[in-house]
Task: inverse folding
């Protein structure tokens, strides 16, 4: 399939451990976004990549969270020393290069990674 | 403070009837509004959008209405079908973020269409 893929689909970890979540965007999509959805909440923006750079990291909740993108493609979201409040579904989305102005490029979402911190 | 609000966490509608999902926002500088639909265990999928220069956009059974003075938009689904049962997210793009399509999502409304 040519959609956004994420791995793993589910991750259960113990408090204090580090986790890495992977996102493979749609080929040719230069923009990549990470969101998380906690139970009963909406989608919370975490970070935006244009190519390999991240001009907006404003949504990362703490310095335990980091993300990188290599080759303008795959992105990894890393959470260090996980806490129970990190439990959520982490969603990745990609889109074509933004055109700005009175237009909008649809974001295509992956199925998400459900993270459970015990 | 939530900038995009969906005050109804859930909604039940009979098949064939109209579904109306509501969304309110606080930032008058939003310039683009979107609706995404999400099935369980799947990522959200884009449904329909509207620019702030319009007050209505229609796509098949789906119509979005925008009332800028009231800072309110709504999604109408007519006629509703059981396959429309999903969580619907309202989202808005701040004008100052047009350089990269950053959007702010509401908490979602779970729609159940009863056969």
Result:
């Amino acid at each position: 399939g040519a959609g956004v893929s994420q791995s793993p689909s589910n991750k259960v970890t113990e408090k204090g451990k580090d986790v890495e979540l992977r996102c493979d965007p749609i080929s040719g999509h230069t923009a990549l976004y990470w969101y998380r959805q906690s139970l009963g909440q909406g989608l919370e923006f975490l970070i935006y990549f244009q190519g390999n750079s991240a001009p907006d990291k404003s949504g990362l909740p703490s310095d335990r969270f980091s993300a990188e993108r290599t080759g303008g493609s795959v992105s990894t979201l890393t959470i260090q020393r996980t806490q129970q409040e990190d439990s959520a579904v982490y969603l990745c989305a990609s889109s074509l290069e933004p055109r700005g102005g009175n237009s909008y490029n649809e974001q295509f979402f992956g199925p998400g990674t459900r993270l459970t911190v015990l | 403070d939530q900038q995009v609000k969906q005050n109804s966490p859930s909604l039940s509608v009979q098949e064939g009837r109209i579904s109306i999902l509501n969304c309110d926002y606080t930032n008058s500088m939003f310039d683009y509004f979107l609706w995404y639909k999400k099935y369980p265990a799947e990522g959200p999928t884009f449904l329909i959008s509207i620019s702030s220069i319009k007050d209505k956009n229609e796509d098949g059974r789906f119509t979005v209405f925008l009332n800028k003075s009231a800072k309110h938009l709504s999604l109408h689904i007519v006629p509703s079908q059981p396959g429309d049962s999903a969580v619907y997210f309202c989202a808005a793009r701040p004008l100052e973020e047009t350089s990269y399509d950053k959007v702010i999502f509401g908490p979602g409304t779970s729609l159940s269409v009863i056969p």
Notes: The interface with chain A takes residues 4, 6, 31-32, 34, 36, 41-46, 49, 51, 53, 89, 91, 93, 98-108 of chain B (CB under 8 Å). Chain B has no helices and eleven strands.
